[in-house]
Amino acid sequence: MRPWIKYTLIRIALFAAVLAILMLFTPAPSWLAAIIAAVVGLCVSYIFFRPQRDDLAKSIAVRRERGEINADEDEDDALDRNV
Predict the structure, then answer these.
(1) What residue ranges are annotated as transmembrane (predicted)?
(2) Contact at 8 Å (CB) between 54 and 20?
């Protein structure tokens, strides 16, 4: 599984779990529960999911080093040269 998919799914699941717990067991308004879930999810993922975050960063660095072709940028560069 690609690192960005894995890390994103972990973050979404963590947010959803915290939000569900807050919505079911506290009288907090939904907007406040969402903000709290986002902050808790961020803190937990920062502390406990460092290996996954490092894998994600490495995959981004490798991709940038390879210089993968971006068709949109090539088209924009070609249009800029013709102007």
Answers:
(1) 7-25, 31-49
(2) no
